[in-house]
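Annotators were shown the component list below and the corresponding predicted structure, then asked to write short factual statements about the assembly.
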Amino acid sequence: DIQMTQSPSSLSASVGDRVTITCRASQSISSYLNWYQQKPGKAPKLLIYAASSLQSGVPSRFSGSGSGTDFTLTISSLQPEDFATYYCQQSYSTVTFGPGTKVDIK
Amino acid sequence: QVQLVQSGAEVKKPGASVKVSCKASGYTFTSYDINWVRQATGQGLEWMGWMNPNSGNTGYAQKFQGRVTITRNTSISTAYMELSSLRSEDTAVYYCARAVYYYGSGMFDPWGQGTLVTVSS
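Structure shown to annotators:
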């Protein structure tokens, strides 16, 4: 099975900060990498698919990059509604999720 | 709009089975795979398996092989996930999600609202 890791596991940031979350796969997954946002008590929401494509309706401050084994989710200017947990997910071979990165208020 | 609506919370005893439903609306049910993902309290997301509603073909994560069964009723656009031999570690929120493919990359959108399954004696 392909293992996914994320770093950091949590971070504290302020409104307006630039935030970067990293996701690493245990083997190459090409660009078969998606990012989700989850708020407490809610289902995950798709943000980025195929590593760098912005899902319809998602603000442009979210962006994704990477291919192979290393991927990044960037929030260019953190907004109050962005405090949440973020998960990466690979679909190259079955499905695996990263352990998540919790973004909270500094 | 595209929507997945799941059945309500369940409380089960260890050793029992649970069957969670996921009703699709706003799109052609048989055109998109349905996946099931679970999340224990305070934990991450764990993929359980998928089903093609058109063919009925399924695939399961190795961890759940032999314990999980995903089925569907196309006449009412509903998918089901049944988990047997429940134990306390199966206490979690169970989500269904529609799989959308982009050049072979599968993403989940949207998700159901989740169903809490509690396993307790």
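Statements collected:
1. Chain A touches chain B at residues 1, 31-34, 36, 38, 43-46, 49-50, 53, 55, 87, 89, 91, 94-100 (CB under 8 Å).
2. Chain A has a mean pLDDT of 97.
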